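ok new one. same drill as before - structure tokens go in, u give me an amino acid for every spot. 169 of them this time. try not to just spam alanines like last time pls lmao
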């Protein structure tokens, strides 16, 4: 896949994810506005007399769909799946006959790190969605452990690229 195709694919999946995220968060704001509009009725009236603005807000909130967080993160997972598949194919290409492993040993280590980073990102997204959907009662500290591990590994990789080891022969 060329660089232009990868950039375009990244932009499309990021745009779809952000649109879905905004729609999910906007739905929560609309429901919050509707509940606050109901609670602002005068305490002296025993019956609920809806005003025109309250009716329009209530009809908007009833049209909101409660989206699952796993559905919101679906574009991210599809994109990660494509990247993991591409990495696996490139790593499996090293197993073909006639490939000289001495020439590409750092390349395999780097691709292994990329695969590990993608799996850590996938683990972070899964645990974050499980926490947001309240499927598991997990502290936020434990949710962020895969993310922190990935960021620490990226710092180590950056340090190794900035300060390469000296080879004096």
């Amino acid at each position: 896949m060329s660089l232009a195709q990868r950039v375009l694919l990244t932009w499309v999946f990021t745009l779809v994810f952000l649109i879905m995220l905004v729609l999910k968060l906007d739905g929560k704001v609309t429901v919050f506005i509707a509940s606050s509009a109901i609670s602002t009725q005068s305490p002296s009236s025993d019956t609920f007399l809806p005003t025109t603005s309250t009716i329009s807000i209530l009809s908007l909130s009833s049209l909101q769909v409660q989206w699952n967080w796993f559905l919101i993160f679906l574009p991210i997972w599809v994109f990660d799946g494509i990247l993991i598949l591409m990495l696996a194919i490139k790593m499996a290409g090293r197993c073909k006959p006639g490939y000289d492993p001495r020439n590409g040993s750092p390349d395999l280590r780097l691709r292994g790190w990329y695969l590990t980073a993608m799996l850590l990102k996938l683990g972070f997204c899964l645990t974050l969605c499980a926490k947001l959907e309240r499927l598991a009662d997990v502290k936020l500290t434990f949710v962020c452990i895969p993310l922190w591990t990935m960021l620490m590994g990226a710092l180590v990789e950056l340090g190794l690229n900035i300060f390469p080891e000296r080879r004096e022969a």
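Helices lie at 3-39, 52-63, 69-72, 74-92, 105-132, 140-143, 145-162. and btw The mean pLDDT is 80.
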